[in-house]
Amino acid sequence: MDAHFQTIVKMTGNQDESVISEMIMHSLSKGVNKNLRQHCAVLFSGGVDSSLIAALAARQTPDIMLITVGFTGSNDIEWAPAAAKLLGLEINHILKLITLMDVESTIPRVMEALGTADPMTISLAVPMFIACNEAKSRNIDLLLAGQGADELFGGYHRYKDIAQKGMPALDKAIAADVSRLPQRDILRDNTVAEAAEMELVAPFIESEMIKLGLSIPVELKVREVNGETVGKYILRRAAENIMPGEIAWRGKKAMQYGSGVWPAIGKLARQAGYKKQDKGYIRKYLYSVAEENRITLDVTS
Q1: What is the largest CA-CA distance in the chain?
Q2: How do 228-230 and 40-43 pair as beta strands?
Q3: Cβ(68)–Cβ(77) below 8 Å
Q4: C-alpha dihedral sign at 87, 89, 90, 93
């Protein structure tokens, strides 16, 4: 397979996009199938990443559960049921509606597990922890997640800005972010999952998928489509093979925003007396939570 990866660097045309799309689906399918077991589910937002994993998993396990966490009216809660229906998996879909109280009670638990008061880290960890607990309550012991796809295929908005500086700069940024995944995002998510007694698996970061992804030209990851700069272009092209374009080409907010957890933490901070206009008010609130619960934080957090 590695020999095939080396030839991808020279590919550019539409025909080659089809070949690369097939290779992506082949590698991702292997990563998903490798980790399927009797009691597993998919952490599902309805975005292209989690939808790909759900669709591929359902080929082998038709009754696999999909779990979505969020506030009533949040982006994920509004969209995920429609995406599950488009995939033909609506009867497997579990919506876990959360409240401000759920977030407030979860914050100390994830802070203790991670040893940090970093607002962005905590806002990502809270919905993850809640999803893991929901899965556990349903006799699930493993969650499949879409982590790594944004880094590998140029999905973040900042990649569009970097692309304006030239493709070599984008290639360097993506490679650097992928190399940091194990000790940053994956470590965070696995630590949170372990605290909830759950195993988390990300098929996008299986070694074969990483090798393939890094071999694909960045011109096929971030490119202009109908006058708009699109991230994860080639991944979306690949997704079109197994799902409606409505899912494959839909933009999506990150978990902390899509679930509504980020604004919820801000609201908790304001309720605790911290003012939005004060710089770092959410971090100050989180430090107060740590102090109140006698949580020891990493000195660099």
Answers
A1: 60
A2: unpaired
A3: yes
A4: negative
What whole-number distance in Å separates Cα of residue 274 and Cα of residue 258?
24
Rounded distance, CA 218 to CA 242, Å?
23
Residue (of 286, 296, 295) closest to 266 by Cα position = 286
* CB of 91 closer than 8 Å to CB of 66: no
Tens of pLDDT, residue by residue over 172-191, are: 999 999 999 888 889 999 99
**pLDDT level of residue 8 (50, 70, 90 thresholds):** very low
Q: Which of 15, 83, 20 is nearest to 216 (CA)?
A: 20
Q: Tell me what pLDDT residue 183 has.
A: 83
Mean pLDDT of 233-248: 94
How confident is the model at residue 226, as a pLDDT?
85
- Average pLDDT of the chain is 91
Taking residues 35-43, what's their average pLDDT?
93
pLDDT-derived band at 2 (thresholds 50, 70, 90) equals very low
Pick from 145, 251, 252: which is nearest to 199 by CA?
A: 145
Distance CA 121, CA 103 (A): 14
Per DSSP, the chain holds a count of helices (H) and strands (E) of 16, 7
- Name the pairing type of β-strands 199-201 and 142-144: parallel
Task: Sketch out the chain's domains with CATH numbers.
Answer: 2-292 (3.40.50.620)
CA dihedral 200, 81, 29, 251 (to 10 degrees): -90
